[in-house]
Amino acid sequence: MPQQKSFGKKAGIIVPLALVLSAIFWFGGSAINLAQGARLGLVGLVFVAMLYALLLAIPKPKAGEKSFFQNIKFKIPVVLVLSVIIWYAAGAFGFPIWWQIEFVTFALVGMFFFIILDLRPMQPETSTGSWVRRLIGTYAIASLLFITITAQLPQFNPAVEIEKLNKPPIKLSGLAGPEVIQAGREVFENNKCFNCHKVFWEGNSDRGPNLGTKQVGLFSEEYLKEQILDPRLGQSPGFEDPKSKRAMPTYYGDDLSDDELDALVAYLKTLRDPTHVPVEGKLGDQWTWWDDPDIIAQGQKVYQGQEPATEGLNCSVCHGKDGIPMMTGALDFRNPENPDTTKIPGDHDPRVLKNWPDALWYKRVTRGVPGTPMAAWGTIFPHLYLWKAVVYERTFHDPLEKRTEKTPIPPIPTKEEIESWKDQGLFLDPLL
Ligand code: HEC
Ligand code: HEC
Question: Mean pLDDT, the chain, as a whole number?
Answer without folding.
Answer: 86
